[in-house]
Specification:
The chain is α/β, with parallel strands linked by helices and 394 residues long. The chain has helices at residues 9-22, 27-34, 38-51, 66-95, 99-109, 115-121, 126-131, 139-157, 164-173, 180-190, 272-282, 297-300, 302-309, 328-341, 350-365, 379-385, 387-390, and strands spanning 229-239, 242-251, 256-263, 289-293, 314-318. A five-stranded mixed sheet has the order 3-2-1-4-5. It is flat.
Length: 394
């Protein structure tokens, strides 16, 4: 029986590259030179064309396209984060009860989590764990470990978006007595740094002949009641296969995003109109409202102007030409949105981006994020305090 030959990945890739260099019509000649059949070489070409660098993985391994690799890696990270969070949620309670309890927790859960993973997450040295199973931490050691675990838990719970100030406020809101200096010290010790920020350019097309409103808002970004001043802007987001465009409408009263649209194109119907329709459903206009935006064509054209004019209580306001600080609140939102959601991450598919944007705006920004402007309260906490004065804001 003829012995079957096996070819390594490098051989297959080089063979395929030869066919690209010398032309597909030379496939049969190249196959003869390499001692393989033209059929095998053609099959390798098809695989390389479909999976690129993910080709020729070998038996037992999945062949993945670049997009599938990104998704697989994201899924692994999400799974690992869930395991870490589960360990922290269960383990933080026992850490405060001393080392023996911590050791018991690790022993009781080693069938569910690896000892290495639990020791890493709970900041317990494996050497110490194995050598001191019958000993307890001192009260000071226990308190420090508890602080570290609580800080780490919050840092990852809020997806690395909080620095020492907001981590301190979140801990204090949960009844933990700890000061900013201590939180900063422990975060530096643990290497917990919020996601890096970088500047992003805006997307505004103000070269048009449409009517432009004066700057009525005049940078007064603090208002005393809901639905008295809204600001809006549009930004772009790069995906694996092109750009998508995010339009937001924010109420200056509580900084809530009351209307938004994520679209493939920049037409008025896809951007400003869709965001406006969501905004007026979420928050009623009962008295005069200033609506402020830049001079982009999506805000200045007849279609959108007519829509706003149909609301008799709406008063238009636009930024001065080339002056982004006239709409700095929206600029600030997009800055943190991209820093917290996009910087340091791989490009997302359009489908994944839709899910991430919804999660960020509706479940993170509007509900959980602590806002400096609101005295480090969440929007929900701020609205709850003002409920008696203004009624249901949402």
């Amino acid at each position: 029986m003829k012995k079957r030959r096996f070819y390594d990945r490098a051989f297959k890739e080089n063979a395929v590259k030869l066919t690209y260099e010398r032309g597909k019509d030379q496939t049969k000649v190249i196959a003869g030179e390499l001692g393989i059949t033209a059929k095998i070489l053609s099959r390798w070409r098809q695989e390389f064309k479909k999976f690129g660098t993910g080709s020729f993985c070998g038996t037992g391994y999945l062949r993945l396209t670049p997009e599938q690799k990104i998704i697989t890696n994201l899924e692994k990270k999400i799974k690992d984060s869930k395991v870490t969070l589960e360990i922290l949620k269960k383990g933080t309670e026992v850490v405060s009860q001393g080392y023996v309890k911590t050791k018991d927790f690790i022993e009781d859960n080693k069938s569910k989590f690896s000892i290495i993973k639990m020791c890493t997450v709970l900041e317990v040295s494996r050497t110490t764990y194995y050598n001191r199973k019958t000993q307890e931490f001192t009260d000071t050691e226990t308190r420090v470990i508890l602080f570290k675990q609580q800080i780490t838990s919050i840092f990852y719970e809020f997806k690395k978006k909080y620095g020492p100030v907001k981590v301190t406020k979140e801990l204090q809101s949960r009844g933990v007595k700890i000061q900013y200096a201590s939180v900063r010290f422990y975060m530096e010790m643990l290497g917990l740094r919020r996601k890096a920020k970088r500047k992003f350019k805006a997307t505004t097309d103000s070269h048009h002949n449409h009517y432009v409103s004066p700057n009525v808002l005049n940078r007064v970004f603090t208002v005393g009641e809901p639905a008295s001043a809204w600001v809006s802007d549009i930004t772009y987001i790069q995906t694996i296969i092109g750009f998508m465009y995010l339009t937001i409408i924010m109420d200056l009263f509580d900084r809530k995003i009351i209307g938004w649209s994520l679209s493939y194109g920049m037409s008025t119907r896809q951007t400003t109109l869709r965001a406006w329709e969501m905004a007026v459903k979420n928050r009623k206009i009962t008295k005069e409202l200033i609506f402020h935006s830049d001079r982009g064509v999506q805000y200045a054209n007849k279609m959108f102007t007519n829509k706003l004019d149909s609301y008799k209580l709406v008063r238009r306001s636009m930024s001065r030409k080339g002056n982004s600080t006239d709409n700095s609140v929206c600029e600030n939102f997009f800055f943190y949105f991209k820093a917290e959601l996009l910087v340091g991450n791989n490009l997302l598919s359009r489908k994944q981006l839709k899910l991430e944007v919804y999660e960020y705006i509706e479940n993170w920004y509007n509900k959980k994020r602590r806002h400096t402007f609101l005295g480090f309260k969440t929007i929900e906490e701020f609205d709850r305090i003002n409920l008696d004065k203004f009624g249901e804001a949402n």
